[in-house]
Design brief:
2 domains; 58% helix; five-stranded antiparallel beta sheet; two-stranded antiparallel ribbon; alpha+beta
Length: 371
């Protein structure tokens, strides 16, 4: 049974991760390509989002796998045969428990190791892209605002990098606004500072006081655009990038660097332990709910609906517990409550199924309905 569960789980995990990943990759593709990034940058960025996507999809894939495998075994009377040989519901649930622990181990590795590493690299690449002058400025046909008080428009960009019909408004002085227009321009590097070289244009300088306008025409003019890129302060790792040990005992330096509260840090650390346990509870609920049904030619649709409802309820409770724990560091223990509740529900379903089986011989079952 465990091998069947793992096989079906691999299939559903691949399908769900692919659908979710492709949906997010399309949006990322539009943003990166429109910013002038290469396809290789897109592939790297999407690959770095995969660990978190897999972490989110594994519990759902595990739940669906248990539903599918158990329903198929019930339809082929395999469960009936095993129950007839004396296997109790708790004994039948043992492979499902092992399966849930394997899934929990996978989620734990992702949550504690792979996701923080991927997010660190992803944030570093985002910072590099945000510092890329080309991606910030070389956008044709759109008014962009690279810094407060600056507006830039480029009608077209040729294959050689020539900027056609450029408009630049500099209102950072407050009392003075200068508008540069040029028929042609080039973006060049002078040392470490980018320069904008404009040809055949004019500069219009408007002083707010007195409403005085002066116009200067030029054949060529060099504008220092280094100030367009806001200076970036040192970036500190976010809570999602920190190690679990650091989150469970957050220091004042960590809280100061991330701007988070102690409750936020504790929640992030404990949530990495709670979510794998939630996966174990969800697969046991799925199996226990399906065991409450009898053999029927019409399948176990009522039991599947029951399992799905309990699964949704479990994650609603988890979301509620997450909000409570993130707001109050004294309530961080509540993130484990949905998992414990789920395990309790699964145990109750298995006990109910065992009780029905013991009462079964007294009532002959025909198609799931007492004779």
């Amino acid at each position: 049974m465990l091998s069947q569960l793992m096989m079906v789980f691999g299939f559903f995990a691949l399908v769900l991760v692919s659908v979710y990943w492709v949906n997010s990759a399309v949006r990322l593709f539009d943003r990166l390509i429109s910013d002038g990034q290469s396809v290789w940058v897109f592939l790297e960025m999407t690959a770095l989002t995969l660990p978190n996507v897999i972490r989110l999809m594994l519990p759902v894939a595990a739940f669906v796998a248990v539903i599918y495998a158990t329903n198929r075994m019930a339809g082929e009377s395999e469960l009936v045969v095993m129950q007839a040989t004396g296997f109790s519901p708790f004994r039948l649930a043992r492979p499902v428990l092992y399966f849930g622990l394997i899934v929990a181990l996978l989620i734990s590795v992702l949550a504690h190791v792979l996701v923080p590493l991927a997010r660190t690299r992803l944030n570093m690449r985002n910072d590099e892209i945000s510092q890329n002058i080309s991606s910030k400025l070389l956008t044709e046909g759109t008014f962009i605002h690279p810094a407060e008080g600056l507006t830039l428009y480029i009608r077209a960009i040729s294959a050689t990098g020539e900027l056609a019909d450029m408009f630049l408004s500099d209102a950072r002085q407050g009392a003075t606004t200068t508008i540069y227009t040029a028929r042609r321009a080039f973006l060049v590097k002078s040392g470490n500072t980018p320069k904008l070289v404009m040809f055949n244009g004019m500069a219009q300088n408007l002083r707010t006081e007195g409403q005085r306008l002066s116009v200067t025409r030029f054949d060529n003019f060099t504008y220092d655009i280094g100030a367009m890129i806001a200076s970036q302060s040192a970036r500190y790792p976010s809570l999602e990038e920190r190690s679990t040990a650091a989150l469970l005992a957050p220091s004042e330096q960590l809280l100061s660097e991330t701007g988070a509260t102690r409750a936020n840090a504790l929640f992030e650390g404990h949530d990495r332990f709670a979510k794998p346990l939630l996966a174990v509870a969800s697969v046991l609920i799925a199996f226990g709910a399906l065991l409450t049904g009898s053999f029927s030619r019409f399948g176990l649709w009522r039991q599947i609906a029951l399992a799905s409802g309990l699964f949704i309820l479990l994650f609603l409770l988890s979301n509620l517990a997450d909000k409570t724990a993130a707001a109050n560091d004294g309530m961080v223990w509540i993130v484990y409550l949905p998992s414990l509740a789920g395990l309790g529900i699964a145990a109750a379903l298995l006990a109910w199924s065992a009780r029905r089986r013991r009462a079964g011989p007294a009532e002959a079952q025909v198609g799931g309905v007492p004779a």
